[in-house]
């Protein structure tokens, strides 16, 4: 059998940790090969080795049957390997085309020939049905589009072997469907794809084979049509995983969050939240279901003080917190797991310990008389790391060098541990493995049972259905329906999210 | 990330080596003996107490201006206005030093404080404009440099003197000099400012690394969105950072006004203390100890170079080129680290091509 990529017996160490050991990965031409493993198992590291960002301590890499020594991404490019990183690497203020040609610009004399480049980008975009506008600024396009730009970047460089590191984690369900058909058309054109994802049903849907790694060790490779999601899950975690979290019926009490007629604008000054009403009570989880871009982000940012409320009122425990400063709102008992962990959630150049006190650093015992108590800070951080199973050598490690999922677990730990009256969780399980998702769901339910109010925002209907005691459907900046999860189904929710009125059960509209 | 990469401390040392080598080549090309040249440089910096005193005297304001630039940089701001802040600090110190007669233990601290406050105010303006209206600090600070230059001149001419060229000498009680120290260092211009500069560096380190304010400033420097999310006041941090940065710069001005000169005269151009501060902060990796070491390098080069024309016959212009080369190499070495990846890959490509060629020839 001919393999386009062979990685044999790879070992890669970081100070204090063996990220890869004894891993074999063999990719056939024209296949979609999934790479599966827990958060911090070493998937991104392995791909960074293949892409020449890291040098392995041991092992051999063959490309098209030739032994190679990939010492830099440029060499990987020359060998036809392209990679889309877990966290995108685009320049916000550049256009799509400028981002794509960056580093290999077509020249006309000494000048960059942008017109020529735009034509080429358009051509490739048409060829694979990517529908990208070459002239748009990257900061103006959606995350899904940005991802296509990253894919185009690889294709522009004539890559035949495409590495996609958790491409679907940041996408909405619609965008995921589109990405899947893009991937299929890519392999039809003879490209090979290595796909990292935590979503087992995606693997079942597109992958031909799947290689599993656990805690840095290679476990094995299976044919996808001979396996099941349950088998994959237990291969990767090493135990049975349950996909549906058990919970008692909710016992809601007093209203904690009461939003009346809220109006908020987005960055372009367009009304995104348009007279929204919402209540969340003690001891219940309210899930916001909606298609991305219907005001979810603006709603969360208005509650947490990151965005001004233009009109209406936000009450927390009957006290107005409308347009208060974020710190005041935290002090009133709100915690917030942000949607974008790199933009808001972490200071990547701070240690993970410092990040654990990002909101509370100024309070005793972390600060006394203006002086930081690093002992207290790091002891506290170690406790969260322990409790939330954040896999890192210790709390002095830079947040930047944690795996994406472990960064997310650390943020969740920080927010939940403050034990707030109101916990706002925006896409809390983005990028987490199935075991970690199970754990986080349990934690959220535990918080609920302690009498906290939980507001969950998620694009994944499964998560909303599974976790919520009540589902509030958001459409064009308003809550258009409140439904109970056991009285509805995906289809009805889908219709409501698309703006149609509710008729089947419950109160007639 | 850049800060991370700048941490390697061996690089500046290797770079200084390369710089010296390049300087030697230049000297050889122009027919001078590089060994003699460098001995002259070394002697000019350290040969006797007088030279050593002068070296320390030169490095004192550099420490403070370097700290000023570094402080702003830590919170993500580029303070190009140190030059102007030095001027207003210098003027304020001299003003207080000439206007009052007080006991020394009040007069000197008061004059120093005045300099810090004046520099801080000069930093406040761009800080405020940046925080409130998102005006870029580089533009404002550059403009403020000119305002400082011309308005200090106007004040010296019209307020502190009657169309004079320079102010009166400051009172003895406001001076950083002491007869004892001057005598010890064989009548060099050294003064007690160096102690203040070292204490400022200590303060810088403590503030940035150990206090909650430093925690905020650095967080704002690394990631403004996350700082805002975390409930920090980004605006307050920006203003505070520029004010304290300007305060350090004002102190650098006090070194000139209360130490080296004891007066302020009309300036027809910038002193370069502030601009050199940018290089010093960069060389020092924006850390307190790094800034002290880099200031030392600047002090040695600038002072030692004065001795090269007389002792080794190397002309002034060449000396300037050599000192610039050494600094250039140190700065360039950081660039080399930043672009290491590209350089390595270029090297490998080259090797690849060469081996292709040789294997083809072999066939
Ligand atoms: N640059 C680095 N320096 C130190 N440790 C690192 C670095 N990069 C990764 N690690 C560590 O190596 C391990 C593997 O990380 P990696 O990013 O490969 O995980 P992953 O499988 O991609 O996880 P996730 O699903 O969460 O993205 C982790 O424990 C991580 O902390
Ligand atoms: Mg990863």
Automatic annotation (TrEMBL), chain A:
Gene3D superfamilies tied to this protein: P-loop containing nucleotide triphosphate hydrolases
InterPro entries: AAA+_ATPase (IPR003593), ABC_carbohydrate_import_ATPase (IPR050107), ABC_transporter-like_ATP-bd (IPR003439), ABC_transporter-like_CS (IPR017871), P-loop_NTPase (IPR027417)
GO CC field: plasma membrane
Annotated ABC transporter domain residues: 5-240, 257-501
Coiled coil spans: none
Domain of life: Bacteria
One Pfam short name: ABC_tran
Endoplasmic reticulum in keyword set: no
Family listed: Belongs to the ABC transporter superfamily.
Protein name, per record: Simple sugar transport system ATP-binding protein
Species lineage: Bacteria, Bacillati, Bacillota, Bacilli, Bacillales
From TrEMBL, chain B:
Entry keywords, A to Z: Cell membrane, Membrane, Sugar transport, Transmembrane, Transmembrane helix, Transport
Cellular compartments annotated: Cell membrane
Family annotation (InterPro entries): ABC_transp_permease
GO cellular component, one term: plasma membrane
GO molecular function: transmembrane transporter activity
Name of this protein: Simple sugar transport system permease protein
Membrane topology term: Multi-pass membrane protein
Top-level taxonomic group: Bacteria
Ranges that cross the membrane: 12-35, 55-74, 86-106, 112-129, 190-208, 238-266, 278-301, 321-339
Location, primary (coarse class): membrane
